[in-house]
Amino acid sequence: TETVRQIAAGEVVERPASVVKELIENSLDADATRISVAVESGGADGIRIRDDGIGMDEDAVQRAIKEHTTSKIDDINDLASGVGTLGFRGEALYTISAVSKMTIRTKPRDGNRGTELHIEGGTVVDVEAAGCPEGTVVEIRDLFFNTPARRKFLKTTATEFDHINTVVTHYALANPDVAITLEHNDREVFATTGRGNLESAVLSVYGREVAESMISITTGDIESDRITAIEGLISHPEKTRSTRQYLSTFINGRYVEARALREAIINAYGDQLAANRYPFALLFLDIDPGSIDVNVHPRKMEVRFDNETGVRDAVTNAIREALLSAGL
Ligand code: ADP
Ligand code: MG
């Protein structure tokens, strides 16, 4: 059964970026205002996530690493409130700990005692009292050390880091009120202030040149009872990229993959886009959760719309309007 468990874990923890995604979500769910992510060698050697969230007492942390334990009430389609825990649903820590060497150091807010827990390949090897600040640090070393086949599947350090960067970037953009820092091999990649809006998060993550080329979208009246807001930033049609990678879409505050949205963005530019060029776009939609169908896979979140045509039109119109009012 140990092997079965390791195989199952390998299926859901595909790569270091999947670990990072789960741990950031936990920190956000724990009400953190600062989250720092530090990884080594594309995350294969080390991942450390530190937050100033609510923390855990010893009982809670012991419970947290068991199978099917969650302190959260979730509804898989609860994209509206943004509190729904996505991904492993009470299994992330358990699953990740089965395929790595994990240390959790945590102290509850206004608790007087911290706890440090060491787990190797799913087995708790040590628990002790620890002096530590309020909040939680989760450290993962030697991911897939006990599943060599899975470890062999990892791509180059650069590719694995790229996946991590994408994940952390999406959370940083969707949560500009949380200060999120990313470090790779002790070098800071970006740091958001946690005090700003989307514009300032874009500046922190992508730099001044991108930030200055962006046009903002804010919808006034939307002719749909299902969509309540479309907001975001899109690039000037001449400031484009050679990949679709920078078309980031969020629904009710969560990053989602939705082809309909990506295509609607591209269509809005019409022939203002050169061949094989893609805009840089960050699109945030607020939409009635009852009108979407969410397919939550541990690795990604896909969304379909009941009224896809209506959504496409609303997005394309919002972007056309933004381009028009920028004189384009
Ligand atoms: P889920 O997030 O679906 O509940 P996890 O395995 O990711 O499942 O986490 C299990 C539990 O551990 C959470 O419900 C939460 O109570 C606790 N936990 C995990 N990470 C943190 C954290 N960074 N701060 C506080 N509590 C945490
Ligand atoms: Mg979780």
From TrEMBL:
Sequence ranges assigned to domain DNA mismatch repair protein S5 in this UniProt record: 202-324
Function (record text): This protein is involved in the repair of mismatches in DNA. It is required for dam-dependent methyl-directed DNA mismatch repair. May act as a 'molecular matchmaker', a protein that promotes the formation of a stable complex between two or more DNA-binding proteins in an ATP-dependent manner without itself being part of a final effector complex.
Family statement: Belongs to the DNA mismatch repair MutL/HexB family.
Protein known as: DNA mismatch repair protein MutL
Organism: Haloquadratum walsbyi (strain DSM 16790 / HBSQ001)
